[in-house]
Amino acid sequence: MEELKITTNIQVCSYAELVEDDRILVDKAKAMTQNSYVPYSHFHVGAALLLSNGKIVGGSNQENAAFPSGTCAERTTIFYAHSKYPEAKFQKLAIAAWQAGDFTANPTPPCGACRQAILEYEKLAGHPIKILLYGRDKVYVINGIRELLPLQFDEF
Predict the structure, then answer these.
(1) What is the pTM of this model?
(2) pLDDT tens per residue, range 32-62
(3) What is the Cα gyration radius of the chain?
(4) From the candidates 3, 17, 63, 74, which is the catalytic residue?
């Protein structure tokens, strides 16, 4: 029997250590948490996406009583971005979460469905999409979704 070891490379830093462009994107994701519609979970998630045309698109999670009809912030953002700017390639994605009156202390990663959706647009872009996961105490900087989805479902 063979053992497969998979490693994930994540840079951990503080918000202050981010370059200005990354802080701007994180700030947009933080602001988007306030646009969430979350009457059931009360867990607000915001996302912001930098496109190759220089535009920043934001989105938030939207819940529905007919679960699972709601949509995560990441998919809301990337689906809107591609429908509005189909020629633009995705460059960077920032995600932030807010609960009980404050941002979460630790970064909140995307769910599995969002990871798979991000992979699709990463393939379309032809390069890794930088991912910034914001937490009050630390920020994770990830060079592409494959770091969070090492055994991704892909073309055969």
Answers:
(1) 0.94
(2) 999 999 999 999 999 999 999 999 999 999 9
(3) 15
(4) 74
